[in-house]
Amino acid sequence: MREAYARRIAMRAPIKRALKEALEALEAEERKDTVLRNPARIAELKTEIERLEKRIAGVPFIDTYDLRYHQLSAQPQPSNQAVMFCVMDVSGSMTQNHKDIAKRFFLLLYLFLEKHYEKVELVFVRHHTAAREVSEEEFFYSRETGGTIVSSALSLVNKIIEKRYPVGQWNLYVAQASDGDNWDDDSNICRDLLVKQLMPQLQYYAYVEITPHDHQSLWHEYESVVKEFPERFAMRQIVEAGDIYPVFRELFKRRLSQS
Fold first, then answer.
1. Where are the domains of the chain?
2. Separation of alpha carbons 16 and 14, rounded Å
């Protein structure tokens, strides 16, 4: 497994460096005043970022060999490994643009965690009225319709932690992306799941709401979670792609200052 992990690192490292440079260049360009922005350069960078993301996606995060022998291998110390849960609403109101913004946010967090842990596993959980663990490809590109019950995803994350990621052996992170839609009666259930079950186990929970509109019930219930766990639960709004990097830095400013 160690050899497979080394292979993945070697294959992804130069692509990740190029992606980091492209993301930083895009963020710098998008932060310029409208008059000074170069639309052609922005389009070029977005195309390059998409190309690099596809190349990274082509390198499996976990080899089949790793999965086969995972139970037989010596486990690293808890401080050396982390799991990142990517949670995303895929109901009818979530457009491909929403998903593209979410993907860039998730990628920033993944690159951040890879700097701090020897091993990082990814778990993709998507939901509408029901939640499923899926592959990376299905997570970002499969189309769904229907309403939204966010608690289904939070419950599934908790079950996966119980089955596969003992708290004493893993550092647990959750990143959630949504446009804010949820059944009103479900939002208080989400709050209770977070406060009573998930947050006591997690290192950090980051929620981004991708919408230009006013916040709905989910946001307001999550505000009460921030009050309970101000050091480990953070939430921000993203309106457009140019907000991604500033929002990421704001969400992780304390951890970034320690890196």
1. 1-74, 75-258
2. 5
Contact 205, 194 (CB under 8 A): yes
CB of 126 closer than 8 Å to CB of 138:
yes
pTM score of the predicted model: 0.71
Q: Does domain 75-258 have CATH number 2.40.50.100?
A: no
* pLDDT, one tens digit for every residue, the chain (259 residues): 344 444 455 555 677 778 878 888 887 888 888 778 888 888 888 888 877 776 765 554 434 333 333 333 334 445 689 999 999 988 878 888 888 888 889 988 888 888 889 999 999 999 887 899 998 888 887 777 677 899 999 999 999 999 999 988 999 999 999 998 888 799 999 999 999 999 999 999 999 999 998 898 999 999 999 999 999 999 999 998 888 888 888 887 765 555 4
Strands (E) across 103-181 are located at 119-127, 131-134, 171-178
Give the three-state DSSP class for 150: coil
The DSSP bridge partners found for residue 119 are: 81
